[in-house]
Design brief:
376 residues, alpha/beta, Lyase, Ornithine Decarboxylase, Chain A, domain 1, 2 domains, 19 strands, 24% strand, elongated, binds pyridoxal-5'-phosphate
């Protein structure tokens, strides 16, 4: 395949993914399964490779958002359990069954499409019942779960009840009350199922990355870990994870400008003195968001250089500190380490007024991914 050679690239360290997976294995203990969440192409890192690394390090299942994402993993030879976490178009029910994907269930039309597909194919479908305990997104109410869904699932001969799940809305904020309330709702559902003499499914899961680390009571029999696998920090003060991704670009031109010289679209920056400006081969079409204009910093030769002027579609400009020798071709670290210096995804996200999840999944497809540790 032809690959872009500008030198704007992402490097992903497989050992970081493995180390992070092992850390979560240690946190939950041997009785609890770790589902590696690799939706959105593994949060921009490459789903297939992340999935392989996580499984090597002891993950027991994979989570994706769509049937197509599940297919990519199956086509890549992955035979571990894969759960489609998101809503599935009824027209994809057969495809999901044929690829042996687990699905979540939460409304009638989808249930009927699924059951019809199972009947047509003569195959059993593995379902996870999603209960809305306070996220307000997908899921049935606790009452619907008990009165309608659990009986419906356990009584259907072509349905295997694999999981009971819910999703937390506030596990990464300081206020723990919403999480405790959701947890107690979930526990009530579990208790009521037990009281009705119905066997619980093998996978009972509530926790994402932040909850896995902060609330051991949310582990049940499985945790769904996304962000932490990639080494991004889920909340301030979280245990030290290893960032898997380094995002680099290259200097394309270096120029000396005089005091007052204006840079970039709409002249949002003027040189405050005689300055050295380096142009860099990355822009918002690569996912280096325009909101970072005049806010972010990059690393060149281990030194922080401020982004000055508007970020363009394919380029940006930085001010080079006086005395730092920079030439076209030099490496620019956008996120990651350069010697002792580091720009974290969380910093980038803060500068762009967003979250690291969005920064990671915004790195666009034209940026080549290299599955190796970055060596500066
Ligand atoms: C994305 C997702 C996760 C993973 O969340 P992280 O915060 O990245 O760990 C877990 N569960 C569901 C349902 C998700 O959609």
């Amino acid at each position: 395949m032809m690959e872009d050679k500008r030198g704007t690239e992402v490097w992903i360290d497989p050992e970081a993914v493995r180390a992070n997976t092992r850390l979560f294995r240690d946190v939950v203990g041997s009785q609890v399964k770790v589902m590696a969440v690799v939706k959105a192409d593994g949060y921009g890192h490459g789903a297939l490779r992340v999935a392989r690394a996580a499984l090597e390090a002891g993950a027991g299942a994979l989570g994706v958002a769509t049937v197509l994402e599940g297919r990519a993993l199956r086509d890549g030879g992955i035979d571990a359990p894969i759960l489609v976490l998101g809503a599935v178009n009824a027209g994809e029910a057969e495809a999901a069954l044929e690829m042996n994907l687990d699905v979540t269930v939460f409304h009638d039309a989808w249930w009927e499409a699924l059951v019809r597909a199972a009947e047509r194919l003569g195959r059993r479908v593995r379902v996870h019942l999603k209960v809305d305990t306070g996220m307000g997104r997908l899921g049935v109410t606790p009452a619907e779960a008990l009165q309608i869904w659990v009986p419906r699932i356990v009584n259907h001969p072509l349905v295997k009840w694999q999981g009971l799940m819910s999703h937390l809305a506030c596990s990464d904020v300081p206020d723990t009350l919403p999480t405790r309330q959701q947890l107690s709702q979930f526990l009530e559902v579990i208790e009521a199922i037990r009281a009705s003499q119905t066997a619980l499914p093998p996978d009972i899961h509530l926790a994402n990355t932040a909850a896995t680390l902060r609330f051991p009571g949310t582990h049940f029999t499985m945790v769904r870990v996304g962000l932490g696998l990639y080494g991004a920090v889920p909340y301030a003060g979280a245990p030290a994870l290893t960032p898997a991704l380094t995002w680099v670009s290259r200097v394309t031109q270096v120029k000396r400008v005089t005091h007052g010289f204006a840079i970039g679209y709409h002249h949002t920056y003027r040189a405050g003195a005689d300055e050295t400006i380096a142009t860099v081969a990355v822009g918002y079409a690569d996912g280096y968001r325009r909101a970072l204009s005049n806010r972010a910093e990059v690393l060149i030769h281990g030194r922080r250089c401020p982004v000055v002027g508007r970020i363009s579609m394919d380029q940006l400009t930085v001010r080079v500190p006086e005395g730092l020798a920079v030439q076209p071709g030099d490496v620019v670290v956008l996120a990651g380490r350069d010697g002792a210096a580091e720009v974290t995804m969380e910093e980038l996200a803060d500068w762009a007024d967003t979250i690291s999840y969005e920064m990671l999944t915004s790195i666009s497809a034209r940026v080549p991914r290299h599955w190796d540790r970055f060596q500066s």
